[in-house]
Design brief:
Elements: H1 2-9, E1 16-20, E2 27-31, H2 33-39, H3 43-46, H4 60-73, E3 75-83, E4 89-98, E5 107-114, H5 116-127, E6 132-137, E7 142-147, H6 156-159, H7 173-186, E8 190-195, E9 205-215, E10 221-233, H8 241-251, H9 256-263, H10 267-275, H11 283-293
Helix pairs in contact: 9-10
Length: about 300
């Protein structure tokens, strides 16, 4: 069975291992290439290793407590810290399934999710006023993007699977690539400010972001998590009031729903102002919105209705 499972787990994109219980404790019987890459050990080093050797000692007690639940439910999800070949701790999420039948040695399929980027993002959100966050892979492709304001020009899903180079002017491609190489070389987070292309052919943004790299057990870059903690209009020339309103709301992390509740203006009206369907709001409407956003009416609308 182990031989067949070895071939099966190679097909999965997640790091995986097959573990069998033995007289002297559990042993690793099969691993896929994704796990070898993540932990930095060779296949020869991992096979027949007791997997408990990889777990940070402070998690041992937790796992012993959860073992009873695994035997009962035949399935367990648990966050642990594994130590890679470079002796570096890695926050990972283990998913364990009991595979063996009655009368056979207990055999488990273990799959792993690398949650280090997500934990870093959550920590940043707790410490900073984050406008957006995401993950970029080693090829500079956006694997995940979440905004914490109503979209200015595009929905979040638009940015996923795009190269970050597609979102910035061609003349700064080299500079951005140099910055990413510097982050990779220094192996630490770094702040930078970049200008975007006109999103939806409407507005160029200047975004200030912080990026943190994450590496595998061989020292190779896996991905970079990032947060955007400031943004503004890059081109200071006149812009459509709807775009100005969206940018100011994003800068203050105020959603359309929140603005509607704070001003007493209907959500439908706020949405029409954001979409440009209402070009000139009534004076009271404009004043209420501007006051709530902490700006002058003329910062958004040059002229407004009576």
């Amino acid at each position: 069975m182990t031989s067949n499972l070895h071939h099966v787990i190679q097909c999965f994109q997640r790091p995986m291992a097959i573990i069998r219980s033995g007289d002297n404790g559990p042993v690793i019987e099969a691993v896929n290439d994704k796990l070898i890459g993540l932990l930095g050990y060779t296949e020869k080093e991992l096979l027949n290793m007791n997997p408990l050797q990889l777990i940070d000692k402070k998690f041992m007690g937790v796992l012993h407590v959860k073992q009873a639940r695994l035997m009962k439910d035949k399935h367990l999800r648990s966050e642990v810290i594994l130590i890679n070949k470079l002796k570096q701790p890695m926050n990972l999420l283990l998913e364990i399934d009991l595979l063996s039948c009655t009368g056979e040695p207990d055999t488990y399929a273990v799959s792993i999710d690398d949650i280090r980027p997500l934990k870093w993002i959550h920590a940043q959100i707790n410490q900073n006023n984050v406008r957006a966050a995401g993950i970029i892979n080693a090829d500079l492709i956006i694997d995940m993007y979440n905004s914490y304001y109503d979209p200015i020009a595009e929905d979040d899903a638009y940015f996923e699977d795009l190269s970050i180079l597609q979102l910035v002017p061609a003349e700064i491609h080299g500079h951005l690539q140099e910055k990413m190489e510097e982050i990779k070389r220094l192996k630490q987070s770094m702040d930078m400010t970049v200008k975007t292309i006109p999103l939806s052919n409407m507005v160029e943004l200047e975004v200030t972001l912080r990026s943190c790299p994450f590496f595998d057990g061989w020292g190779r870059l896996i991905n970079c998590a990032f947060i955007i903690f400031d943004l503004k209009q890059s081109n200071e020339t006149a812009t459509e009031p709807a775009i100005k309103l969206k940018i100011i709301m994003a800068q203050r992390s105020i959603s359309a729903q929140t603005l509607a509740e704070a001003t007493g203006i209907s959500l439908q009206t706020i949405s029409k102002l954001r979409n440009g369907k209402i070009k000139r709001p009534q004076r009271l409407t404009a004043e209420l919105i501007a006051s709530e956003l902490g700006v002058q009416v003329t910062d958004i609308w040059e002229k407004n209705g009576k």
